[in-house]
Each structure stands twice: as C-alpha cells, then as structure tokens.
C-alpha cells in the first residue's frame, strides 16, 4: 500500500479510455477524516495548467477532502475551457462522494495543448469513486503513470502514525518547488499551517533537487493531506524527518525511472560557503551534457566537473577543489589525484562528491545520464 497506508484514506485507479494503450488513467484519493487539513506546492513555471490553477484555489484555505488525477492529457494551455473542465472534474467527485467542491484538488498529466475528452473522463471519475478502497493505493499509483515504466510508492510508520505517498514522472524533471505529480497522506494530527511548513521544507531538499533534464513541467503538483485518524500528534521535528524521508525516497524513484537513463547519479557538494552555493554547483554539474556523457561512457572525467563549477558564481578557489567518483578522489586540489582506472562506474548508482573547501555547507542533487540519444554519439568524446 502507499497513499492508503495511513488510516482514514481510500483510493482507486481505473481505465477511462484516455490513453490509446487502454491502461488505467484515472485515480481518486479520498481523505475520510476526521481532519481535512492539507497543503500543496506547485510548479513555478509561469505557464501553468488549468488543474494547477484550480488546485491552488482549492487548497488556499488549507482544507482538502480528495484529489482526482488523470493521465493521458495535461489539460495545459487550454484556456477558459480547460479550467471549466477541471472544475467539472472536481464537481463530479464532489457530487458522487458528497464532498465540498472547493475541497477537491485536480491533477492532470500528459500532452500539453489538447482538451481532455470529458465524455470519457467523467464516467471514469464515476467508476473511480465507485471502486474506492483502503487497498486501492497501488491501483491509484498505476493510473497516474504516463511514460513511467513502474509505479512509485513509499510509506513509513512511526509510533502509531503513518505517512504514505505515490508519484509519477519520468521526464520533464527539473526543480520548481515540486516536480511531477505527487500525493502524500498521513493519519497524524497536524494543522494545515504546520503541514505547509513541513511540505515546503521536505520539497526543498527532495523534489526541488531532482533534476534529470532541466525541463520544468506546467503541471507539477505535490499535495499533502492529513486525516488525523491515528489520534497521534507528533512533534514537528519527528514529522518533518519522516515526511522528508518519504519525499527523498519518491524523488530517487523518479530519477531512477527517467527515460533512457543508465545511471542514477547523486552529485554531493560539500565544503560550500553557503547552501545556495552548494545547490548552484551541484545543479550546474547535474545539467552538464558533457558530464552526463562521461558517466554514460563509464569515464570518471573530473575535468568536466571542474569546467561546470567554473561557470557558477559560487565562492571557491580552483586550486582547492577535490572531486571523487564513487569514493575515489580523482582530483585533489584542482589537480590530478588518484588513478582514474580505480573508479568503477559500472553500477547503476553513481556518487560524485565535490569538496569546495570554502565553508561548511552541503547539498545533494539527484540526476542521471538521461541524454541517451546524445550520449550514444558522444560517450567517447573527451575534453
């Protein structure tokens, strides 16, 4: 189970016919209470989809009772008609389940610039509402997949309360408060304001640091709902740690399933003058096509790491930078370090550690060698 691991939640996933493949494409997650406290973060892309506009308004008061999600169409760049379609979708859920329409969030994913086939979607919503179950978390996670090859789910139980989550995304993964579609649930007793604080912090160090292709979507949404059904009120620090752990887990699953990738890469920057510097350096490395090519070609080419760092405005001295690939320091003090033949880049997971020796701050960016078609032509190229 995932989103239905916490008490007070039911979910479902059904096939409405939105996808030519005939695979499941509509999911509903319902918070049965007693609390309906919620929070959400959204894409910072100035071109945002109709469901993002609807859901921002719905969660503004910190209350949500349900989320309805569809794959097979993003409902983005569809104007007033697209917004009306999101409203109609929320209304259908509210009518079928006896909820308040403004307490229903809407999420869509798929191609941009195409109206949703409402003659298929609304009956699909009816079917999803009819099939809601405490065991429906996995079905919901499957229904929101687009080019994903596997569903993404996670859950944790701590001292009598739980957090569950599901996510989708295999491309257009770049930071913007949140990336992709994610639904998180908890049966802990947490107020809306505290959920908002915890979610923004968890997203900041997880989804906001997952960056496979540098492309930010128009639909990115992360929703967190709390039912309070466990009757347990955890302290803020404990809840934050558990929520962050779930978000990091889901972010890593998204990176691992990115289209065409052969390696999951963690770029760890330590010794930075500020956290902002650490993030800037890590992101520049993670977005370097030459760096991605090197990893794809199993070449610990630390020169590509240094050249990426050099274009940032971070504080550092070039002759003090250390770079390690999977624990082997191939660059020491900005110069040649250990023999690069000692590095084994054959495993799926790769960790590149950069020490700027400029302070005590650190950050890790999750990426991969997603530029598959590009690297096939350039894997043996060296600078």
Automatic annotation (TrEMBL):
Subcellular location, record wording: Cytoplasm
Keywords: Acyltransferase, Amino-acid biosynthesis, Arginine biosynthesis, Autocatalytic cleavage, Cytoplasm, Multifunctional enzyme, Transferase
Stored SUPFAM superfamilies: DmpA/ArgJ-like
Biological pathway: Amino-acid biosynthesis; L-arginine biosynthesis; L-ornithine and N-acetyl-L-glutamate from L-glutamate and N(2)-acetyl-L-ornithine (cyclic): step 1/1; Amino-acid biosynthesis; L-arginine biosynthesis; N(2)-acetyl-L-ornithine from L-glutamate: step 1/4
GO biological process terms, semicolon-separated: L-arginine biosynthetic process; ornithine biosynthetic process
Active-site residues (renumbered): 179 (nucleophile)
GO molecular function: L-glutamate N-acetyltransferase activity; L-glutamate N-acetyltransferase activity, acting on acetyl-L-ornithine as donor
Entry superkingdom: Bacteria
Binding-site residues, substrate: 146, 168, 179, 259, 378, 383
One cellular-component annotation, GO: cytoplasm
Catalytic activity: N(2)-acetyl-L-ornithine + L-glutamate = N-acetyl-L-glutamate + L-ornithine; L-glutamate + acetyl-CoA = N-acetyl-L-glutamate + CoA + H(+)
Site features described as Involved in the stabilization of negative charge on the oxyanion by the formation of the oxyanion hole, chain residue numbers: 109-110
Function according to Swiss-Prot or TrEMBL: Catalyzes two activities which are involved in the cyclic version of arginine biosynthesis: the synthesis of N-acetylglutamate from glutamate and acetyl-CoA as the acetyl donor, and of ornithine by transacetylation between N(2)-acetylornithine and glutamate.
Record family assignment: Belongs to the ArgJ family.
Summary of subunit composition and partner proteins: Heterotetramer of two alpha and two beta chains.
Record-linked HAMAP family: ArgJ
Identification of the protein by name: Arginine biosynthesis bifunctional protein ArgJ
């Amino acid at each position: 189970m995932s989103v239905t691991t916490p008490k007070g939640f039911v979910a479902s996933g059904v096939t409405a016919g939105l996808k030519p493949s005939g695979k499941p494409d509509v999911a509903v997650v319902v918070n049965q209470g007693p609390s309906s406290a919620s929070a959400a973060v959204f894409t910072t892309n100035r071109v945002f989809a109709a469901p993002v506009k609807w859901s921002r308004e719905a969660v503004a008061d910190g209350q949500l009772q349900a989320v309805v999600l569809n794959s097979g169409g993003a409902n983005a760049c569809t104007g007033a008609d697209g917004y009306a379609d999101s409203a109609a979708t929320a209304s259908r859920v509210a009518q079928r389940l006896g909820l308040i329409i403004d307490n229903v969030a809407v999420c869509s994913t798929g191609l941009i610039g195409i109206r949703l086939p409402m003659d298929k979607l609304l009956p699909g919503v009816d079917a999803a509402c009819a099939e809601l179950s405490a065991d429906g978390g996995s079905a919901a996670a499957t229904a929101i997949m687009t080019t994903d090859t596997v569903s993404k789910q996670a859950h944790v139980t701590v001292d009598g309360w739980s957090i569950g989550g599901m996510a989708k995304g295999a491309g257009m993964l770049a930071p913007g408060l949140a990336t992709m579609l994610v639904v998180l649930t908890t049966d802990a007793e947490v107020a809306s304001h505290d959920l908002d604080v915890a979610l923004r912090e968890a997203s900041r160090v997880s989804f906001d640091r997952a960056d496979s292709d540098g492309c930010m979507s128009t639909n990115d949404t992360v929703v967190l709902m709390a039912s309070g059904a466990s009757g347990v009120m955890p302290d803020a620090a404990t809840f934050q740690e558990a929520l962050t752990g779930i978000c990091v887990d889901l972010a890593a699953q998204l990176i691992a399933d990115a289209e065409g990738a052969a390696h999951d890469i963690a770029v760890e920057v330590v010794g930075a003058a500020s956290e902002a510097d650490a993030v800037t350096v890590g992101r520049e490395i993670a977005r370097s096509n030459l760096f991605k090519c090197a990893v794809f070609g199993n070449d610990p080419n630390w020169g590509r790491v240094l050249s990426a760092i050099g274009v940032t405005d971070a504080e550092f001295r070039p002759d003090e930078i250390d770079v390690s690939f999977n624990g082997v320091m191939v660059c020491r003090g900005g110069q040649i370090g250990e023999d690069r033949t000692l590095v084994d880049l054959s495993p799926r997971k790769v960790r590149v550690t950069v020490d700027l020796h400029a302070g005590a701050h650190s950050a890790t960016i999750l990426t991969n060698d997603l530029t598959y078609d590009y690297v096939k032509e350039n894997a043996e190229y060296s600078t």
